[in-house]
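Review session, final week

We close the course with one last complete record, chosen because it touches almost every idea we covered. It is Threonine synthase, a protein from Halorubrum persicum with 354 residues. Go through it on your own first, then we will talk.
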Amino acid sequence: MWRYEALLPIDRPEGVSRAAGGTPLVRSPGLDEVAGARVFVKDEGESPTGAYKDRGSAVAVPHTIATGDDVVGTVSYGNMAISTAAHATSLDRECVVFVPADIPAGRLEHIARYEPTVVQVDGDYGELYGDALDLSERLPIDVLVSDAPTRISGYKTALFEICESFAPETPDVIALPASSGGFASGVWLGIRDLERAGLIDESPRLCLVQTAASDPLTRAFEAGATDPTPLSPDETGETIAHSIGNPNPPSGARALAAVRDTDGAVVSVTDDEIRTATRQFAVDGGFCVEPSSATTLAGVSRLADRGEIDADESVVLVPTGTGFKESGAGGTDVSTEKVRRDDLADRLASMLPA
């Protein structure tokens, strides 16, 4: 991503930040029939910590250290916590991660391997966003929340890479999972940078996909609202796409503006659709993606069924995180064959196509 250093707010830093970005864009014809369009996959799971969050951390963490803060923090119990901790420790800085009291042990293990200070907080986890900003004002710590401007500036490099790969054309659609709205804000910022520079004539349509269990952006888009209304606990359900189950997206207004500015759409998909799409990503495309990322395929398929995406259009799906951190989340039934060594050739011959 540092090929775009001139468009970022810091000079190229040291540490794991140098490994961020540069993820592949892969033509994936095996997913065309499912999606109802010509599919390209921008595999952010190949980032240093397995998620697009590394683009934001690569800019935000070194930037906050350069401004004098020795302790970096974040509010997350998933990819952003892992990424922030990794980037901080690679620059020999302390990191504090605020997580909910009931965080699953598996996620805590992924975060803890970078040895940040992990603080489990009782109470309403959604209120921690505001609390974190207050802590940054009162204590010698800079808590980098999901929509920190430096994070968003890092995210725009994904858009630069996509458009550079397509040049001199641009893709028709870019589909992103949507939670806080920060990634959509960054991609939109990148689009506007390229438009101002005269490098693209027509922007891709941004399509955001949410889990139906928590979809304030979809509801606001369908209602014609410019700002999403936070969902109450009674309106929020459980979902396998836990990374995007945000009932009160802090960058929601910007995400909605980005969609409307690019003539895009926002759509929600169910857990059953997400499970199916996770399997299709793997079996038809060869990609292991987390459930939140699989929403992109399910969402584009739904939009194509509604006639909002045509079969000859180019669609970039952006799996924002690897599925290899999500043990058991794919709902895959494991079937094996037990064979004696001396029967192996005969049994294998019966299993293979004639």
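Two points worth writing down before the exam:
The chain has twelve helices and ten strands.
Residues 149-166 form the longest helix (18 residues).
Good luck, everyone.
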